[in-house]
Please model this.
Amino acid sequence: MSAESKASNHSASDFSSKTPARVAVGRAGTRPKTSAWLKFRVDHALARDAISSELDADFIQEFAVANGYPIVQSSVASKDEFIQYPPRGKVVEEKTLAQLRTLCSPGNDVQIVISDGLSAKAVEKNAANLLPMIVDGLKMNNISCGLPVVVRYGRVAVGDQIAFALTSQVVINLIGERPGLSCAEGLSAYITYNPSPRTISSDRTVVSNIHERGTPAVEAGAYIVRLVKTILERKVSGVELQKLS
Model:
């Protein structure tokens, strides 16, 4: 092998070690190498499993029940319905909101919602480390926080409805993101000032890629607290917050 070829291979190897993207995987003729193809099949299977995953009974018991967090369900009845009819995962029924009003104190600065979204595995993997960092950080900054609520079959907008019902200034929806071929356990935090049923996507500030190979949960928690503090001070979130930055 020539010195030029060796240098090229070294450069490709160095680049591929710095990203989970499928770069410099090589080929055998017109086809991907067997190792690259098998890795693709594995990652694709993990992504499919994540989308169909549901919160494990042990996780619900140890994370939610043990800490006294209310567990509610969106207006869908099953995982299949959640995937096939996305708008139904954005709301909970009025009787659920009435139940939450009796369990949760209203009028807090922040309401935290934990939704399984499109990867319950992401919630199971990251929420236990992320949530205490947020709650403790808010407390240190004298920002009041309501009792976290766990939502099964929840999408992003369900947090706005719950926080609006509990008259909170800001909602943080910690939700399992749609898995990709490089990560099936990524969590995101959607943060909205003055949330309501009329909230639109551009009103939300997002902290994404919270997972062990992205932004670690502990680091993300500290950043989310600083972001919430800024949002409360400036009284805006989403695109409007970016305009002030």
In short: The domain at 55-244 is CATH 3.40.50.11240 (Rossmann fold). The longest strand covers residues 170-176. The chain has one domain: 55-244. The CA atoms of residues 27 and 33 lie 5 Å apart.
